[in-house]
Amino acid sequence: MLRLLKNRRVLISAAVVAALVAVAVWPTTVPVELVALSRGPLVVTIDDEGMTRIRERFVVSSPLAGRVLRIELEPGDPVKRGQVIARVRAEAPPLLDARARAEAQAAVESSRAALGRARAEEQRARATLAQAQRELARVQELSRTGLTTRQDVESRTADAQVADESANAAAFAVRAALSELQRSEARLAPMGPDTTGRVVTVAAPVDGVVLKRIRESESVVPAGDPLVEIGNPHQLEIVADLLSTDAVRVRPGSRAIIEQWGGDKPLDAKVRRVDPAGFTKISALGVEEQRVNVVLDFVDPVAAWAALGDAFRVEVRVVTWEARDVLKVPTAALFRQGDAWAVYLVDQGRARRTLIMLGHQTGQEAEVVSGLTEGARVILHPGDTLADGARVKERQQK
């Protein structure tokens, strides 16, 4: 009886040890987060900060040496072309010596050359506007007969609008150059004794608003001293300084998206120019970077971004590639396998390491060229402990 009892205890102990060993070596099921691959649009962008600026700025200067009277205009006040914005009381200037007179004469010649260049640019801009309007009329006629696309019509319309703004800007530049010539000639004009004390009015060269009041209080100013800065807030553009390695992938006409500007929805923009020269900029981490200015124009009507002003911060996303229907995989599912990309594909409850080939990538998604099919389920954020062939189950979302 005692021997039987002892044998039973041995058997029970052996069974318990065997059960513990079986539990220890039994394959565990790893809870994972799964996602099914789908097709959809993919947009690859270059993201950076940008700043708005008024395209054409006009600094109104004193036409002669004298005492400028107090300027009553405040920043933001609208002005019309020809409106008096400042008054200068003439004072007897010192006589010009030979050197000063030679410099004044050189300034007059330079101003005349600038005026000629501005007029030539105005003629070129008006010719471009006429061509853009003819192209727009042609595609509109083709659109009525169904021989062109709506996108082509919209593109020609945007080109005509840009050409119209360029022509207006060229006209403003001619007026500014003419004012500069008059200012330069005023330095050489003799001032008689009856001129001293005369109040000379300074008029606005264009329609716009006061951006900056450089001289506020009454003070003595030399000829050419800046008084007021004027600009048209409806002629707003965006400047983004991109890394030179990113700027080489941007082309004029590229689509862009403006975000984080304070409005309810993103704005559409278009790259107008990529500067041909870069510059060095120190990053926040103290690293020297080569940057290139990229200039963009708004595509949306003025009413959509009227709340923006000069030197406002925005987020710029320049589109370098996009497609409407591609097979996409989240980048959170990717990991490196040697020199290739791989994912863990779930097949019959097991994780299968699968090599894939990728195309274009963003920070969140990547284009799958080969290796996976639509509807395949892959593991997100695979850990280092996950092995090929491991049993997995989908983690329940809380």
What can you tell me about this protein's structure?
The chain is an alpha+beta fold and 398 residues long. The chain has 4 domains: 29-40 and 324-394, conserved putative lor/sdh protein from methanococcus maripaludis s2 fold; 45-53 and 234-323, Elongation Factor Tu (Ef-tu), domain 3 (Beta Barrel); 60-90 and 192-232, RNA polymerase II/Efflux pump adaptor protein, barrel-sandwich hybrid domain (OB fold (Dihydrolipoamide Acetyltransferase, E2P), Beta Barrel); 94-190. 29% of the residues lie in helices and 38% in strands. The protein has helices spanning 2-25, 98-144, 150-188, 244-247; strands spanning 29-36, 38-54, 57-61, 66-68, 78-79, 84-90, 199-203, 208-213, 219-221, 226-231, 236-243, 255-259, 267-274, 279-282, 288-298, 313-330, 335-337, 340-347, 350-361, 365-370, 377-380, 391-394. A hairpin with a 7-residue loop joins strand 12 and strand 13 (267-274). The longest helix has 47 residues, at 98-144. The protein is elongated, with a radius of gyration of 35 Å. Mean pLDDT is 86; it is low at 21-26.
| Tally of separate helices | 4
Beta percentage is 35-45%
Instruction: Please give the CATH class of the largest domain.
Output: Mainly Beta
Query: How many runs of DSSP E, i.e. beta strands?
Result: 22
Overall morphology: elongated
Fourth-tier CATH superfamily name of the largest domain: Efflux pump adaptor protein, beta barrel domain
User: If strands are numbered along the chain, what order do they take across the biggest sheet?
Assistant: 2-11-15-13-12-16
- Cα-based radius of gyration, to the nearest Å: 35 Å
> How much helix is in the residues?
25-40%
The poorly predicted ranges are 21-26
Overall pLDDT = 86
Return the domain count: 4
CATH topology of the largest domain: Elongation Factor Tu (Ef-tu), domain 3
